[in-house]
């Protein structure tokens, strides 16, 4: 295959996400400008101008009408997805680390960092039909005393819960209605960098700086599968089509300049989801991979790296015919 | 938008191919042949023939997706014409994703790098971890070595053990041979004599493919495949099996290449 290289960003990528149909790819990087691309040919559709700091997370709603971005400039912004118009700015007291639309597009959350005496908080907002009537957060979940800050938060199925990853590797599930802590698991020993659900939302995969990636059962928070590696894992995604997962990561960004490309383990690694064995690698980035996303069809995937590039890989036909030994 | 004939008649400056001819032909398979004449960097006029096949791939998409294909660009792309722009979108070089059930694949990737480390360098003279050319015993060992190879030849023609005098230095690589060469009937320490070397193997061959190919000749002790170099060593349990494999597979067409099979280096003489 010949990946499509997107070099619209001038700094390292922080998050990429496909919309529900997968025709658009949304990306944020440390360069302040969230961008949207056509995923089939890599054409840049537009950019969202307004942020004054590193953008950490982006999400698009189910109908691809609204985009939410969280940034280090202490704002979370709501945009019109297809015109780039800024609809609302949510001012916060610290950096916004993670954003997520609820299923049904009526609500959303954003997570603020613990800096300058503020506690790490999950803020709930209702998305107003008319942008002029947009209100600020109507409720919050504040991290408990003695617990480490949130690094990522996602909605559980039917918007009943919030699944949050912490800086110390804890995964906790909160009741979205009452904000009560329901379940908690501490298996990772370092920051949860990424958390992506399976298509049926019954399990999710985590990526942690402690070099491991786990698949957790949503209902019990038990580890179903483990994928140990040698380098920090920055992102993990579950294929919606095959029994595969992909991991991206590599050596810490700060030590990249002293590492050769081959020693840094900067490949996207394919693992068999069930047998937990590596089945292939995709080379390409010149630094750690920060974020990965599978196209909703499972026929292509995209990776965003510390090198500032996004690479869209449309998988070759022989990928789909490949069978693992035990599957034959 | 209605376009007049006039607009079509005037080509864009970008399409202008001044001075040089350009021929386009289309054959029955839909392959375009473009013949172009241009001046290369050395100032020479060259003819460039390119064959292009255009393939229209139709894809059914949902209504919402189809609607979004017609969107106006915004932000930094506001003034871009439709289609991918070179400054933001490029095609990278070919990348191969080879999926394999054998998870050692990942470890293999690092092999070339390790080769360069000094620990893997072996001197041909003294077996030290330096290049042969830098061997400190180069001058003292050289005549010895020549003598040794002479004696090896004589040993091959007539099995004699006269030069295996006690106290005489024997290079490590010959020590085994001397031992096993003494009696024909004696079983060698390793099953080296049942080893065949297969060369000219296609790079796409996996361990599994090779095993399938070899299996029918009989039980094997060891199968070693060096894929990027295109060779393999196969040690059979029985000499007869190895012989049969050698006779059958030598010259056998396998994945567009013709296999070359011989006895492994060690026991060729």
From TrEMBL, chain A:
<keyword id="KW-0648">Protein biosynthesis</keyword>
<keyword id="KW-0853">WD repeat</keyword>
<feature type="repeat" description="WD">
    <location>
        <begin position="282"/>
        <end position="312"/>
    </location>
</feature>
<dbReference type="GO" id="GO:0034399">
    <property type="term" value="C:nuclear periphery"/>
</dbReference>
<protein>
    <recommendedName>
        <fullName>Eukaryotic translation initiation factor 3 subunit I</fullName>
    </recommendedName>
</protein>
<dbReference type="GO" id="GO:0033290">
    <property type="term" value="C:eukaryotic 48S preinitiation complex"/>
</dbReference>
<keyword id="KW-0963">Cytoplasm</keyword>
<comment type="similarity">
    <text>Belongs to the WD repeat STRAP family.</text>
</comment>
<keyword id="KW-0396">Initiation factor</keyword>
<dbReference type="GO" id="GO:0001732">
    <property type="term" value="P:formation of cytoplasmic translation initiation complex"/>
</dbReference>
<keyword id="KW-0677">Repeat</keyword>
<comment type="function">
    <text>Component of the eukaryotic translation initiation factor 3 (eIF-3) complex, which is involved in protein synthesis of a specialized repertoire of mRNAs and, together with other initiation factors, stimulates binding of mRNA and methionyl-tRNAi to the 40S ribosome. The eIF-3 complex specifically targets and initiates translation of a subset of mRNAs involved in cell proliferation.</text>
</comment>
<dbReference type="GO" id="GO:0003723">
    <property type="term" value="F:RNA binding"/>
</dbReference>
<dbReference type="GO" id="GO:0071541">
    <property type="term" value="C:eukaryotic translation initiation factor 3 complex, eIF3m"/>
</dbReference>
<feature type="repeat" description="WD">
    <location>
        <begin position="185"/>
        <end position="226"/>
    </location>
</feature>
<dbReference type="GO" id="GO:0003743">
    <property type="term" value="F:translation initiation factor activity"/>
</dbReference>
<dbReference type="InterPro" id="IPR015943">
    <property type="entry name" value="WD40/YVTN_repeat-like_dom_sf"/>
</dbReference>
<dbReference type="GO" id="GO:0071540">
    <property type="term" value="C:eukaryotic translation initiation factor 3 complex, eIF3e"/>
</dbReference>
<feature type="repeat" description="WD">
    <location>
        <begin position="48"/>
        <end position="89"/>
    </location>
</feature>
<comment type="subunit">
    <text>Component of the eukaryotic translation initiation factor 3 (eIF-3) complex.</text>
</comment>
<feature type="repeat" description="WD">
    <location>
        <begin position="6"/>
        <end position="47"/>
    </location>
</feature>
<dbReference type="InterPro" id="IPR001680">
    <property type="entry name" value="WD40_rpt"/>
</dbReference>
From TrEMBL, chain B:
<dbReference type="GO" id="GO:0001732">
    <property type="term" value="P:formation of cytoplasmic translation initiation complex"/>
</dbReference>
<dbReference type="GO" id="GO:0071541">
    <property type="term" value="C:eukaryotic translation initiation factor 3 complex, eIF3m"/>
</dbReference>
<dbReference type="InterPro" id="IPR034240">
    <property type="entry name" value="eIF3G_RRM"/>
</dbReference>
<feature type="region of interest" description="Disordered">
    <location>
        <begin position="157"/>
        <end position="190"/>
    </location>
</feature>
<dbReference type="GO" id="GO:0003723">
    <property type="term" value="F:RNA binding"/>
</dbReference>
<keyword id="KW-0648">Protein biosynthesis</keyword>
<dbReference type="InterPro" id="IPR024675">
    <property type="entry name" value="eIF3g_N"/>
</dbReference>
<feature type="region of interest" description="Disordered">
    <location>
        <begin position="1"/>
        <end position="29"/>
    </location>
</feature>
<dbReference type="Pfam" id="PF00076">
    <property type="entry name" value="RRM_1"/>
</dbReference>
<feature type="domain" description="RRM">
    <location>
        <begin position="194"/>
        <end position="266"/>
    </location>
</feature>
<dbReference type="InterPro" id="IPR035979">
    <property type="entry name" value="RBD_domain_sf"/>
</dbReference>
<dbReference type="GO" id="GO:0002188">
    <property type="term" value="P:translation reinitiation"/>
</dbReference>
<dbReference type="GO" id="GO:0043614">
    <property type="term" value="C:multi-eIF complex"/>
</dbReference>
<comment type="similarity">
    <text>Belongs to the eIF-3 subunit G family.</text>
</comment>
<protein>
    <recommendedName>
        <fullName>Eukaryotic translation initiation factor 3 subunit G</fullName>
    </recommendedName>
</protein>
<feature type="compositionally biased region" description="Polar residues">
    <location>
        <begin position="79"/>
        <end position="91"/>
    </location>
</feature>
<feature type="region of interest" description="Disordered">
    <location>
        <begin position="68"/>
        <end position="91"/>
    </location>
</feature>
<dbReference type="GO" id="GO:0006415">
    <property type="term" value="P:translational termination"/>
</dbReference>
<keyword id="KW-0694">RNA-binding</keyword>
<feature type="compositionally biased region" description="Acidic residues">
    <location>
        <begin position="15"/>
        <end position="29"/>
    </location>
</feature>
<dbReference type="GO" id="GO:0003743">
    <property type="term" value="F:translation initiation factor activity"/>
</dbReference>
<dbReference type="Pfam" id="PF12353">
    <property type="entry name" value="eIF3g"/>
</dbReference>
């Amino acid at each position: 295959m010949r990946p499509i290289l997107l070099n619209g960003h001038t700094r390292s990528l922080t998050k990429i996400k496909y919309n529900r149909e997968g025709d658009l790819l949304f990306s944020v990087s440390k360069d302040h400008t969230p961008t949207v691309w056509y995923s089939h040919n890599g054409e840049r559709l537009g950019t969202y101008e307004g942020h004054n700091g590193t953008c950490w997370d982006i999400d698009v709603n189910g109908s691809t009408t609204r985009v939410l971005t969280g940034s280090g400039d202490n704002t979370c912004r709501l945009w019109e997805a297809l015109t780039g118009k800024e609809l609302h700015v949510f001012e916060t007291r610290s950096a916004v680390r993670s954003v997520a639309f609820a299923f049904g597009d009526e609500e959303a959350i954003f997570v603020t960092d613990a800096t300058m005496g503020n506690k790490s908080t999950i803020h709930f907002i209702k998305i107003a039909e008319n942008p002029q009537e947009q209100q600020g957060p109507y409720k919050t979940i504040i991290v408990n005393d003695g617990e480490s800050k949130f690094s990522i938060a996602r909605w559980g199925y039917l918007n009943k819960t919030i699944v949050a990853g912490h800086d110390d590797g804890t995964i906790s599930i909160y009741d979205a209605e009452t904000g009560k802590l329901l379940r908690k698991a501490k298996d990772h020993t370092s920051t949860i960098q990424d958390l992506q659900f399976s298509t049926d939302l019954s399990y999710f995969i985590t990526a942690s700086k402690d070099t491991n990636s786990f698949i957790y059962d949503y209902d019990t928070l038990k580890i179903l599968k483990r994928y140990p590696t040698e380098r920090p894992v920055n992102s993990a995604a579950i294929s919606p089509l095959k029994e595969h997962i992909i991991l991206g990561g590599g050596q810490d960004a700060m030590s990249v300049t002293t590492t050769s490309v081959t020693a840094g383990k900067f490949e996207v690694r394919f693992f068999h989801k069930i047998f937990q064995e590596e089945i292939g690698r995709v080379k390409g980035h010149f630094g750690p991979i920060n974020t990965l996303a599978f196209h909703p069809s499972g026929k292509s995937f995209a990776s965003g790296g510390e090198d500032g590039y996004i690479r869209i890989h449309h998988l070759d036909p022989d990928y789909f015919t490949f069978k693992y030994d035990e599957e034959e | 938008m209605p376009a007049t004939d006039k607009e079509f008649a005037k080509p864009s400056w970008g399409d202008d191919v001044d001075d040089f001819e350009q021929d386009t032909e289309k054959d029955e398979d839909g392959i375009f042949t473009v013949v172009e004449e241009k001046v290369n960097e050395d100032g020479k006029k060259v003819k460039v023939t390119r064959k292009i096949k255009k393939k229209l791939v139709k894809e059914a998409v949902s209504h919402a997706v189809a609607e979004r294909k017609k969107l106006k660009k915004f932000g930094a792309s506001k003034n871009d014409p439709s289609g991918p722009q070179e400054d933001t979108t490029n095609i990278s070089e070919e990348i191969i994703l080879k999926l394999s059930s054998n998870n050692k694949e990942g470890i293999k990737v690092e092999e070339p790098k390790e080769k360069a480390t000094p620990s893997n360098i072996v001197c041909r003279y003294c077996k030290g971890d330096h290049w042969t050319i830098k061997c400190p015993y180069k001058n003292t060992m050289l005549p010895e070595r020549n003598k040794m190879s002479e004696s090896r030849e004589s040993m091959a023609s007539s099995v004699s053990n006269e030069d295996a005098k006690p106290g005489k230095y024997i290079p490590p690589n010959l020590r085994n041979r001397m031992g096993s060469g003494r009696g024909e009937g004696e079983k060698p320490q390793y099953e080296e004599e049942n080893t065949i070397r297969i060369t000219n193997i296609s790079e796409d061959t996996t361990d599994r493919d090779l095993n399938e190919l070899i299996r029918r000749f009989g039980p094997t002790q060891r199968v070693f495949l060096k894929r990027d170099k295109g060779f393999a060593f196969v040690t059979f349990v029985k000499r007869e099996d190895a012989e049969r494999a050698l006779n059958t597979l030598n010259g056998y067409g396998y994945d567009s290449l013709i296999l070359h099979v011989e006895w492994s280096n060690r026991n060729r003489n």
